[in-house]
Amino acid sequence: MQNFSFYNPVKIVFGKNTISQLNQLIDKKDKILLTYGGGSIKKNGIYKQVKSALKNRKVVEFGGIEPNPSYETCIKAVNLGKKEKINFVLAVGGGSVIDGSKFIAAAIPFKGKDPWQIVKSGGADVKSVIPFGTVLTLAATGSEMNTFAVISKLSTKEKLAFGTPLCYPRFSILDPETTYSLDKKQLRNGIVDTFVHVSEQYATTNLNTPLQDRFAEGIYKTIIDIAPAVMTGKKDYNSRASFMWCATLALNGLINRGVQEDWSTHSIGHEMTAFFGLAHAETLAIILPAVWKYELKNKADKLAMLAENVWGIKKGTKQQKAKAAIDRTVKFFNFLSMPTSLKAYNLTLADCQKVIDRAAKRRWQIGENGDINANALKKIFKLCL
To answer: For residue 255, which of 200, 310, 216 has the smallest C-alpha distance?
Structure first.
């Protein structure tokens, strides 16, 4: 096990009817910038709950933060926040709204000439952040309890991540009933996103971290067990509650303490979203099995462990179990009606060359072993067909 430190100051308020606590969670002197997405919260009653909780408070609204939040949209919110002299940001939505709001909260006090530098520096240039909180409406990214955000720049077709301890939310309200209005595609994407988040931290090098492994396996098994109930689309509180909590725990810094992490699937997936417009989870479902196949020798220990402890596969050699774990994962994604190939989106190897070219330009050496470069990426994409 590697050395590590662990710090997570986010206050989680979990359960039914918890949005009403907003008034107590935000200082009454604060002027609030309320951020949200395409307006679904106005249709499903969440907006009404938020506004009721913030009755008689100073609130400025900014809607329209899109899936894969764009720098161009977020800058409009930054300018509004500066003009209105807001001092608290409240993100109401899923991971995209929260990610966008993290950038907004960091960009309002940013002293540099170009706010995109916040993202380009990976968060290193962030010196202060406007305090912010979240009301989560879509279980997937874990952004409600971590320091990370991913922002797209439409003008250059870039999608990059940044993170800083300054970007922990002050609080996050998790009411599973807010997910009742999600369609099956959104639910599917959230389940896959959660599964892959765990995988990036679990299916790597075996560093003898049994407690972290059991935490991760618990999330895996729970998300697999509840997936059928979630995917019915029915308003089943218990399955939605477990789903929401799994997604949060998958990326709040608990299961990766002392372990080796990968994140190559995410890096490749971000480029596919930037160039081809695929949803984040759609890219992950294509890339993860291919990365595992390419790295089979290096990942055999942990993939065999995944086969045994999660999928219940006890027979065979380590290599056979590892391959079986990949096959079962693909079947699980397909059960969710999630495609796992490039051809499902009418993409070819020729299309993916622009991703390879960018990897070469950026001199990628990604993955837990730093062995995935542009040449390796060609082989990975072939495995995605």
So the answer is: 216
How many other CB atoms are found less than 10 A from the CB of residue 373? 17
* SS3 letters across 113-153: CCCHHHHHCCCCCCCCCCCEEEEECCCCCCHHHCCEEEEEE
Query: Can you tell me the distance from the alpha carbon of 186 to that of 154, in angstroms, rounded to the nearest whole number?
Result: 23
187-196 average pLDDT score: 98
Q: What is the mean pLDDT of residues 28-46?
A: 95
Tokens of 141: 């990214």
Gap between the Cα atoms of 25 and 119, Å rounded:
29
Q: Tell me, which fold does domain 183-382 have in CATH?
A: Dehydroquinate synthase-like, alpha domain (1.20.1090)
Sign of CA dihedral 41, 144, 172, 56: negative
| Start and end residues for every CATH 1.20.1090.10 domain found in the chain | 183-382
One CATH from 3.10.180.10, 3.40.50.2300, 3.40.50.1970, 3.40.50.280 for 11-178: 3.40.50.1970
Radius of gyration of the chain from Cα atoms? 20
Q: Give the side-chain half-sphere CA count within 13 A for 373.
A: 7
Average pLDDT over residues 202-226: 98
160 touches 119 (CB < 8 A) = yes
SS3 at position 332: helix
The span from the CA of 360 to the CA of 375, in Å, is 8
- pTM above threshold 0.85: yes
pLDDT tens across 286-296, in order? 999 999 999 99
As a whole number of angstroms, the distance between CA 58 and CA 56 comes to 7
E strands within 19-93?
A: 32-35, 59-62, 88-93
Q: What is the pLDDT of residue 349?
A: 96
Q: Which of 118, 167, 172 is nearest to 144 (CA)?
A: 172
**11: which strand partners?**
171
Please tell me the predicted confidence (pLDDT) of residue 196. Answer: 98
> Which helix or strand (DSSP H or E) is residue 153 part of?
strand 148-153
What is the model's pLDDT at position 340?
A: 98
CA–CA dist 73, 70 (Å, integer)? 5
Numbered ranges of CATH 3.40.50.1970 in the chain: 11-178
Tokens, residue 46: 């969440």
pLDDT digits (tens, 9 = 90+) for 103-148: 999 999 999 999 999 999 999 999 999 999 999 999 999 999 999 9
Q: Are 162 and 116 in contact (CB under 8 A)?
A: no
